[in-house]
């Protein structure tokens, strides 16, 4: 699949992306189950389940993540003034990254609070700040880009987004391009499959199923709905 200008699984290097994919599999932050698919909140069946919050319970993996993310931001967005985490999965990572870079940090709620000041963005965000958004996982891109929109509406300059992992859906690529938001990730679906193959945990037929799911998740899901 051709990569969009605005959507690239751009690792610090190939080795680091594969190393992270291996770590995510080891600690079961990512599980692959093509024969007994998971059910997402949307109702879609999926051969993969990713919960990067598991990384917080593993100090070595947690440290590797925030150090790599900080390096990525320093390299790709050297003018960043504020780190913004997307609630709730990326709040802890954003705080660790901001601390590593010695930058202020805010986070963006999925919806404004219904009481108090009814904040959508928590923390101090000076007008016209140059912001990098930190996300844990990008699937369709919808919720991630809602955070970008909220920051822009609050007067921030969003330089781009970094994330731990992306499935690389074509729909997400199109969404980031339309939003004019560059996305860089530490690892991606292709490197995850490569790591799983190296571990000997996938058969050729399972690999084919996983590759087919990414191309058309709904069509793949429909096979298990009857």
Brief description of this entry?
This protein is an alpha/beta fold.
Mean of residue pLDDT values = 89
Q: Cα distance, first to last residue?
A: 30 Å
Note the total helix count.
8
Number of domains: 1
In terms of DSSP E residues, the strand content is 15-25%
Gyration radius, in Å? 17 Å
Give the helices and strands as they follow along the chain. EHEEEEHEHEEEHEHEHHH
- β-strand number: 11
The helix content, as a percent range, equals 40-55%
Structural class: alpha/beta
Named at the architecture level, the CATH assignment is 3-Layer(aba) Sandwich
Largest sheet report: 7 strands, mixed
Query: Which runs of at least 5 residues are low in confidence (pLDDT < 50)?
Result: 1-5
Globular, elongated, flat, extended or rod-shaped: what is the shape?
A: globular
Enter the CATH topology name.
Answer: Rossmann fold
Q: Which CATH class applies here?
A: Alpha Beta
The main sheet orders its strands as 1-11-10-9-6-7-8
Task: Please provide a written account of the structure.
The chain has 226 residues and is α/β, with parallel strands linked by helices. It has a single domain, classed as 3-Layer(aba) Sandwich (Rossmann fold), CATH 3.40.50. It contains 8 helices and 11 strands. It has a 7-stranded mixed sheet with strand order 1-11-10-9-6-7-8, sandwiched between helices. A two-stranded antiparallel ribbon has the order 2-5. Strands 3-4 form a two-stranded antiparallel ribbon. Helix 1 packs antiparallel against helix 2 and helix 2 packs across helix 3. The radius of gyration is 17 Å and the shape is globular.
